Amino acid sequence: MSTHAAIAANASRAVPGYLVSALAISPASGTGAAIQPRNPADPLAGLGHTKVHERETTVFGEGDAAGSVFRVLSGMVRLYKMLPDGRRQIIGFLQAGDMMGLAFAAQYLYTAETVTATTIQRIPRLELDALMDAQPAFARKLLSTTTSELMAAQDQMVLLGRKTAAEKVASFLLRLSDRKGGERTIDLPMGRSDIADHLGLTTETVSRTLTKLKSGRLIRILAGGKLELLDRDALSDLACGF
Amino acid sequence: MSTHAAIAANASRAVPGYLVSALAISPASGTGAAIQPRNPADPLAGLGHTKVHERETTVFGEGDAAGSVFRVLSGMVRLYKMLPDGRRQIIGFLQAGDMMGLAFAAQYLYTAETVTATTIQRIPRLELDALMDAQPAFARKLLSTTTSELMAAQDQMVLLGRKTAAEKVASFLLRLSDRKGGERTIDLPMGRSDIADHLGLTTETVSRTLTKLKSGRLIRILAGGKLELLDRDALSDLACGF
DNA sequence: CGAATCCTTGAGAGCGGTCAAAGGATGTGG
DNA sequence: CCACATCCTTTGACCGCTCTCAAGGATTCG
Q: HTH crp-type domain: which residues (chains A, B) (predicted)?
């Protein structure tokens, strides 16, 4: 019951991640805090094996045989699909608490790469299945979380299909902020080309748009890949509701 | 009980939520065949209430209180989200077997309108919850279907973010065909502006692109909103794998 | 500290959007 | 059953947002 309430609360985040197949089990998700590997309230705690991956390395590739699901405990991961000629679409950025590889398919349908050094829990499918059998409530939890991801994916469709470059970038920054609980200062550990491939733009357009937001005093770009939101209301207007 | 917890938590959303998922429960989906209301192999058979909706009518609107989920038994429905200034993104077109309104949110996150006259089964959330409690396998089935929807949503992100107009239209036509089991002749009951708002284009661009495909002998436009795929291989090359 | 990588900025081009109007299809009333 | 009105589609001309190509500058990492 308390577990269910917690999940429902996560599922109802005003602006959940833009991640895919991402499962935010822990209420600490998104605050930058890492998931604790051994938490009695976490059904996945202790399952599988946990490993630290270096920055800019591949966790699994599109088309690889899919035997496990993964959960990010700390750090950041990007998921993407590529067209034959190299065009790339980043499906989402995963942070602490998010899951990936959940599809019921024989192969992974996207590539997962670390952006920063990342701690990842690898859980064999069989263990996850066993957990769902043992705890039917867990299967419902997974359903709820997957549905939230689907909602986020639909928001992303609106962004990609109908928003201008400035609206896309503003939406992206606000999402990152909301994910950190609405903080003014956010991390941008990923490069401009990652942002571009997530928003359906080019690196040049992302850079130009950020410069424009900076000139308009809506944001301030800080050292170390950080960024401060100076005028959240103006950004929100620009974003057209994420 | 679990339902109560979910609803209470959802009611506390700071921002009206966004949408939901579409699922294909029936293997007969997309063949044009209608779902049978009383099929012993269908766990949803006989649940809720079934009604025929006229063409171009609203089933539910974004923001409406969400008390039921719906399943399309025959006909076609479009799901869309709108930006404040009227820009529209069609999330998807639903056919026989597809479900909508599945999000665990207090409000529907998108609008559902019929394209053609459509038979729709309305199932109260409480009945669906009861079914999941009674048949854990059904919850797993819903999870599997929702995951498939998520994969489709990710393909759509690639389409919207990285494909050209011609690639978008070719992908769209091939998807419709595949949904009908790969038939050469497909139905296009929706208007050009519906297609445009699904692909992130304008009606003019959709029209021009179809004309170009017609000139290139890749397709043939038939009377009554039908279309024939003349060169599936060429379309497939164009589409870059959907 | 040095070198590679990434970011920013500029100039110009092109794809798709906008505006406009003619051509067809659909549906309704006479 | 036909005439007319309305809506949708198609086509054309032009525009502008974003992309492409290019180069200088900043940052990061080994």
A: 163-233
Question: Residue B28 corresponds to which tokens in the numbers above?
Answer: 């007969």
The CATH architecture annotation of domain B2-157 reads Sandwich (2.60)
Tell me whether the CATH fold assigned to A2-160 matches the one assigned to A164-239. no
List, as ranges, residues 123-142 from A with C-beta within 8 Å of B: 132, 136-137, 139-140, 142
- B199 — alpha (psi -120 to 50), left (phi > 0) or beta? alpha
User: Per the structure block, which two tokens stand in for B46?
Assistant: 């006989």
Sorted by where each begins, the domain ranges of chain A are: 2-160, 164-239
CA distance B226 to B212: 17
pLDDT, position B4: 42
- Looking at residues B91-104, what average pLDDT do you find? 94
* CATH topology (fold) of A2-160: Jelly Rolls (2.60.120)
Q: What is the mean pLDDT of residues A171-185?
A: 94
CB A15 within 8 A of CB A242: yes
C-beta contacts of B202-208 below 8 A and 24+ residues apart? B205/B165, B206/B165, B206/B169
Whole-number pLDDT of residue A19: 37
Give Cα separations from A89 to A73, A79, A92, B47, B131 (angstroms).
24, 9, 9, 40, 38
Spell out which residues of A between 143 and 182 contact strand D, using CB within 7 Å.
Answer: 164-166
pLDDT of residue A98: 94
Asked whether residue A200, judged by its CB, lies under 7 Å from any atom of the DNA or RNA strand D, the reply is: yes
- The answer to whether the Cβ–Cβ distance between B160 and A200 falls below 8 Å is yes
A6 torsion bin: left (phi>0), alpha (psi -120 to 50), beta (else): alpha
Q: Among A108, A154, A206, A238, pick the best mutation site for testing chain B contact (most B Cβ within 10 A).
A: A154
φ, ψ of residue A7 to 5 degrees: the values are -65, -45
How many CA atoms lie less than 13 Å away from B107 in the CB half-sphere? 16
Question: How much is the average pLDDT of B87-96?
Answer: 97
Q: Is the CB of A39 under 7 A from strand D?
A: no
Average pLDDT, chain B: 86
Is residue B163 scored above 50 in pLDDT? yes
Q: Which fold has domain B164-239?
A: Arc Repressor Mutant, subunit A (1.10.10)
Alpha helices (runs of H) in chain A, residue ranges in sequence order: 2-11, 125-134, 136-162, 165-179, 192-199, 203-215, 232-239
- Edge-to-edge order in the sheet of strand B219-222: B185-187, B226-229, B219-222
Largest CA distance in chain A: 56
At A96, the pLDDT band (50, 70, 90 cuts) reads very high
